[in-house]
Amino acid sequence: MPLDADVFAEPAGRNAPQQVHITLGDQTGTAMTVSWVTMEEAGNSTVLYGLAIDKLDMAAEATVTTYTYYNYTSGFIHHCTLTNLQYGVKYKYAMGFGFTVRTFWFTTPPRPGPDVGFRLGLIGDIGQTFDSNATLTHYEATGGDAVLFMGDLSYADKYPLHDNNRWDTRGRFSERSVAYQPWIWVAGNHEIDYAPELGETKPFKPFTHRYPTPHLASASPEPYWYSVKLASAHIIVLSSYSAFGKYTPQWKWLEAELGRVNRSETPWLIMASHSPWYISNNFHYMEGESMRAQLEKMAVDARVDLVFAGHVHAYERSFRVSNIRYNITDGLCTPVRDRRAPVYVTIGDGGNIEGLADEMAWTQPPYSAFREDSFGHAVLDIKNRTHAYYAWYRNDDGAKVAADAVWFTNRFHMPNHDDSTPTKSHPSIASSSSSSMPAYNLPRLIRISN
Ligand SMILES: [Fe+2]
């Protein structure tokens, strides 16, 4: 969208807080981190919060930072963690005292528990185009409680000299959602902003200055991989752009983290990374393969329910498949249907500046259940410990029609239930639900995309 688009407008008032966004400040939401930017001066860093606008009886102080990127100097970036919050309670909060006060609200997540329902929004690769705006509008209509964002936020690196003003415009654009509910951040390649030709050699510099994550709460040494627990879901965020080989910090953390998962408390185990492990699109094909080869067995052994990714600007959902038999001697390297395995959802179709990934060059492979190159978003509606209703909404249909919908059953509480077979869209596979059948013996599917 052009710089004068109304969704990029700065809020009225001198030095008004802008680009307000929140994320979890601890692992479960009894703390919330509020971030905002002031452009003229740092101003007051206090956030007042409480149960009503006339009862903001708690206070917290923000840290303030700035950064430079080539010829750009940021505004004053504030990060403030509100603590001592109760589960499932609506709080009001305000900041900007001394100049222009702005007020917002959020509802904390419910206390984690096995049958606690939660609506998790799923958006990736959103950018700041007209399609991005449509995606956000549709997500507001479908109404999740929080968003798991699969990476690639601003695409500032696609503008001349990595124009960091585009980090500011994107922050203003999405404030209408992310100031009111926490978004959980996954780092994408467009967050790296590594540009030695501009003298910018510190990866993730704008992203880390602007978007804190609660990584310390899950004993992660880096902001790019961490976990949160929302209601009945334990969500593990991984970094496609940090080392993940055996013995690396991320690998060691993941191994320990999987040991900390308590499926009795949080039955739903979800992983997210930017680059997908299973995709049948020419764009970014196989980029996630090294991570899959390294980490897939850990995910299958842990009975991960769902793995979400972005990066590929299209939508794709897999059946429950695994490809963990391979070794260099036996040559077994074919994905097979596997009820122990996660479903893989690629949802990099938020509406970015690069356009759709429309090169589904092959006949749809057997591991792919549904694919389409359309912009959209999804919502995972967790009902209880056994069932979650998942739906993908393409922008072309608005927010009323789910273009792809599945009832997922939990891998811990219903491990043998085959929830990834035949939808109405794919009657051709109705008879092929064997969990041990080699994938290439399954009937070929008809390409769904245009
Ligand atoms: Fe990407």
Automatic annotation (TrEMBL):
PANTHER family: ACID PHOSPHATASE RELATED, OS12G0637200 PROTEIN
Main enzyme class: hydrolase
Taxonomic lineage from the root: Eukaryota, Viridiplantae, Streptophyta, Embryophyta, Tracheophyta
Gene source species: Oryza meridionalis
Domain Purple acid phosphatase N-terminal: 17-108
Signal peptide: none
UniProt keyword terms in alphabetical order: Glycoprotein, Hydrolase, Iron, Metal-binding, Signal, Zinc
Purple acid phosphatase C-terminal domain span: 341-401
Residue ranges, compositional bias (Low complexity): 425-436
Matching SUPFAM superfamilies: Metallo-dependent phosphatases (SSF56300), Purple acid phosphatase, N-terminal domain (SSF49363)
Domain Calcineurin-like phosphoesterase: 119-315
Protein known as: Purple acid phosphatase
InterPro entries referenced in this protein's UniProt entry, alphabetically: Calcineurin-like_PHP, Metallo-depent_PP-like, MPP_PAP, PAPs-like, PAPs_C, PAPs_N, Purple_acid_Pase-like_N
Domain of life, source organism: Eukaryota
